[in-house]
Amino acid sequence: MTNAERQARRVRIINAVRKRPPTALAPPDSYPAIEIAAMMREIGVALSEVAQPIPIVQGRLVAIAARYTTQQVRLVVLPTVLLIQIGDATYQIDGSTHSSLQLDAAGRIDNIASLAEAGAITPTDAVTAIKTARRMPPRFGRFTTAIGYAITTLGFGIMINPTWATLPGYLFLGLVVGMIVSYGGRFPSLTPILPTLSALVVTLLATWFVAAAVDDGLLRVISPALVATLPGMALTTGAMELADSQIISGSSRLIYGISQLALLVFGVIIGLHIAGSELTPQSPSTPMGPWSLYLSIVIVAIGLSIYLSAPPGCLFWLMAAIAVAILGQKLATDILPAARSGFIGAMLSVIFAMLATRIRTSPPAVVMLLASFWSLVPGATSFMSVSQAATGDDANVASLGAAGAAIASIALGTLVGWSIFRTIDSRTPWAKAIRKAA
């Protein structure tokens, strides 16, 4: 086989594995400015609703604008408000306080945004597709979703506190919170109190039936069950936005995250007061082996695929993304303190997701990224530290500082990961193909 034949064979294999870059449908200024602005409005609001940081939303909207118009475009992007001006006469303003971590909807929105970034969809089609994606119902019913949440809780429990005796407690508490979150979501008026209600119920049940049987620490037992109400995503995104000089967005998200933590801690305090008893010291329960970390990755991926309504056929990719985050974080503990090891996990997660999404069978990058950030559970560390301080447990300034360091390290790792990916991506055949198509 000659070198030319080998090269041709290699190209065929690569083309069979990777996705084809979308091509632009028309040159800029081919569509009315009002349609372009409406498309950018819908995409920007939808991206914000699926927990995309403001710098990423703004960057994608700028890239979309460059594909569709040569007029000057001004943007104001905030977590709940979006303002767009194209030229001197076209304005769009919209906002949303709704948020969703439904992975299939997030993936659909991300795909539409990617097509728009390449100019490969008409503005009216993009608006219609985004509206349809935002109305997508979850793949599973409420009870099945609660089961998925219980499985996720079991996985996080094995990841945080891997002991044999606590496994039934994780499943029990996870199912209870899953039912509260799934069925409580039917009543919008209950949404603000769901964190407090979940923490209260879980604390009571853990104090009476779970933590009294296994002396693994109340907070370590209940934290996995409260993973859906923990504000880890908001705290991490806020820190990342502040690092990118997005002062309004970053500070508002941090304040929101801190208020959510306060509601959770308040629920724990009320639960302890109602229970009226303290946990009695017992001999530590038997720990699981070092293999438990790998088991937890599989269990968390299965649970999240059900609870977060992941797109069909992406379980393997969820496992891979979570494994990159968790194993990268674990390996980083050899060179970094545990509270800062999330930097490596977050950085590797971003690079992996953005490169893996180019493979034909992979889901959109946002699906893998959201699963990765859930697995890093920065909110669990914050919750345990703040709760220990509020309940008079063995917390100090150092433990609270460690919680803050964990959040900041993940935010910084995300920023570094994005920077590395953009540097690599600008030199890949994918980026060159898109530029050529333009």
Short descriptors:
438 residues; mainly alpha; 2 domains; three-stranded antiparallel β-sheet; 18 helices; 4% strand
Radius of gyration: 23 Å
Cα separation of the termini: 36 Å
Number of alpha- plus pi-helical segments: 18
User: What portion of the residues fall into strands of 2 or more residues?
Assistant: under 5%
Could you tell me the number of beta strands? 3
Largest sheet: 3 strands, antiparallel
Report the uncertain regions.
none
Strand order of the largest sheet: 1-2-3
In terms of quaternary structure, the protein is: single chain
Query: In which range does the helix fraction lie?
Result: 55-70%
Notes on the protein architecture:
- This protein has two domains: 13-137, no CATH class; 142-424, no CATH class.
- By secondary structure, the protein is mainly alpha-helical.
- The protein has helices at 3-17, 33-49, 54-68, 103-117, 123-134, 142-160, 167-184, 194-210, 218-222, 232-243, 247-275, 292-307, 315-332, 342-356, 365-376, 378-390, 397-425, 429-437; strands at residues 73-77, 81-86, 90-95.
Task: Give a brief description.
The protein is mainly alpha-helical and 438 residues long. It has helices spanning 3-17, 33-49, 54-68, 103-117, 123-134, 142-160, 167-184, 194-210, 218-222, 232-243, 247-275, 292-307, 315-332, 342-356, 365-376, 378-390, 397-425, 429-437, and strands at residues 73-77, 81-86, 90-95. Strands 1-2-3 form a three-stranded antiparallel sheet, covered by helices on one side.
